[in-house]
Q: What sequence folds into this?
């Protein structure tokens, strides 16, 4: 009874149960397997977009579910994503300055 | 969720500790963004040294990546156990997380040693310098995480956690997951995308 109450309290706070976390981990492991398969199987023009999309999906899943950002106060999302967007913007400009995207 | 549940709430109802941790992680994005960008810029500059494709061992690094990914699962299970006031499971999952982290760092040390033997020193080429700086900084972050995890296990056993126990475990968990998401990016951009 006590454990059930504790489970419910944790789920109310973070929106996830342990079984949910294990499901997320299984999905992440499957995506990692797919990522590694791109090294052995020729995906043609889809290679780069597929890898980048899988990377972003894994990133968002860990941040949203394991770090609970999806269920937490929006202020935390703002702080983290502000830093992330700033970093991506600054370094995309930095790489563009060095003509990284023109090959 | 109300953040007052985590203690140390400010007048906005948001936990100050958690707010500080997220601001820190946001700033860490800038640190690793700089290191990753520098690597991307210099990864083709090998000047006589080995090329990335000649030294990277993708199966080995894939296993290391999987180990670190699974450590995020054990960490979140530790946080979950801490919220349920289950000290035994909290300690167990924290220890497993630290062991998985140590396995990852051990793999990185082995990888660095193998690369060095194959002719890639820190100053061999711009590729070598930027590669060792990026992955080395990440390895140091993982090592700091392991030290925090083991310290926490010791503190929990003596039941002398300053502040709310679940919040302390959650903050270390946030740091640990951040280290994992940085590796998700490094694994794809550094190892899987060929030069």
A:
């Amino acid at each position: 009874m006590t454990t059930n109450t504790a489970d419910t309290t944790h789920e109310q706070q973070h929106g996830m149960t342990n079984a949910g976390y294990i499901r997320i981990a299984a999905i992440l492991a499957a995506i990692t397997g797919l990522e590694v398969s791109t090294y052995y199987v020729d995906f043609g023009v889809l290679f780069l977009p597929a890898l980048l999309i899988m990377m972003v999906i894994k990133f968002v899943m860990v941040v949203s579910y394991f770090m609970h950002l999806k269920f937490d106060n929006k202020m935390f999302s703002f702080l983290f994503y502000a830093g992330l967007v700033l970093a991506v913007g600054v370094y995309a400009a930095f790489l563009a300055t060095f003509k990284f995207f023109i090959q | 969720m109300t953040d007052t549940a985590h203690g140390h709430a400010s007048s906005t109802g948001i936990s100050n500790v958690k707010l500080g941790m997220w601001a820190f992680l946001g700033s860490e994005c800038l640190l690793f963004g700089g290191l990753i960008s520098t690597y991307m810029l210099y990864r083709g500059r090998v000047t006589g040294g080995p090329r990335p494709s000649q030294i990277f061992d993708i199966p080995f690094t894939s296993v290391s990546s999987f180990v670190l990914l699974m450590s995020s699962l054990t960490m979140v299970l530790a946080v979950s156990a801490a919220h349920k006031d289950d000290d035994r499971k909290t300690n167990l999952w924290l220890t497993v997380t630290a062991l998985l982290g140590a396995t990852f760092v051990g793999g990185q040390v082995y990888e660095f040693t193998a690369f060095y033997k194959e002719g890639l020193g820190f100053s061999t080429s711009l590729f070598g310098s930027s590669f060792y700086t990026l992955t080395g900084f990440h390895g140091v972050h993982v090592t700091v995480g392991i030290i925090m995890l083991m310290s926490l296990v010791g503190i929990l056993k003596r039941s002398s956690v300053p502040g709310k126990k679940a919040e302390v475990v959650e903050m270390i968990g946030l740091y640990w997951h951040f280290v994992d998401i940085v590796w998700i990016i490094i694994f794809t951009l550094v190892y899987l995308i060929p030069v």
Summary: Chain B has one domain: 3-192. DSSP finds six helices and no strands in chain B.
